[in-house]
Design a protein that fits this description.
Blueprint: H1 2-15, H2 32-46, E1 50-56, E2 59-65, H3 70-73, H4 75-79, E3 91-94, E4 100-105, E5 114-121, E6 128-138, E7 142-152, E8 158-169, E9 175-183
Antiparallel strand pairs: 1-2, 1-9, 3-4, 4-5, 5-6, 6-7, 7-8, 8-9
Length: 189
């Protein structure tokens, strides 16, 4: 009787397992976050020198440094990701040519931060050669606009990036900023 009970329990446990193969949903939009996160890993491992120019509210700071926290430095580019299930129908898609993806926020979706995103691919590598984005946030107390630019070389690695825009709190002056980085290439090991 015990072998029958074990067999019954085994069949019961097997029949309750709902682990049917899940089909992954294909991204609707270009995977900007995936690309940028892979570049963060590459840049963190290589530690290249970056010529960085920052201008915030009229103050300028220029430096060349290998000490960059790439996750923080490129965080806005990761935030420009529109490949979330909730955003599936929020953007119009234009393909002016086979290498360009242009996404524009539909007028009915003004609550979303990413208003426009363009990805231009390199014809040989099919990796992003240029990514541009416009991010806006606004309410009665706060308004901000950020324009992003990321450029990659023929090897598919990020070479240049720029974030510029403004932030303004109600009843305060507008604070404009621009941060630009030029990544010096590091020879392959």
């Amino acid at each position: 009787m015990k072998p029958f009970a074990l067999l019954f329990l085994g069949l019961f446990a097997f029949s309750c397992d709902n682990s049917a193969p899940q089909t992954a949903t294909k991204p609707v939009y270009f995977d900007v976050a995936g690309y940028v996160k892979s570049q963060i890993d590459v840049l963190s491992a290589r530690n290249p020198v970056v010529a960085k120019d920052a201008r915030i509210s009229g103050q300028t700071n220029k430096q060349a440094t290998p000490n960059i926290d790439w996750a923080k430095e490129l965080e806005l580019f990761v935030q420009a990701d529109i490949n979330k299930p909730a955003f599936r129908n929020s953007y119009t898609i234009a393909r002016p040519d086979s290498l360009t993806y242009h996404y524009t926020l539909k007028p009915t979706e003004e609550r979303l931060t990413v208003r426009a995103l363009t990805v231009k691919l390199d014809p040989k590598t099919r990796q992003p050669a240029q990514i541009t984005a416009l991010l806006k946030s606004e309410n009665r107390l706060y308004e901000s606009e950020r324009r992003l630019l990321l450029e990659s070389g023929v090897d598919g690695r990020i070479q240049h990036y720029r974030v510029e825009g403004f932030q303004q709190l109600a009843y305060f002056d507008r604070n404009e900023f621009r941060v630009e980085g030029q990544i010096n290439p590091v020879p392959a090991p």
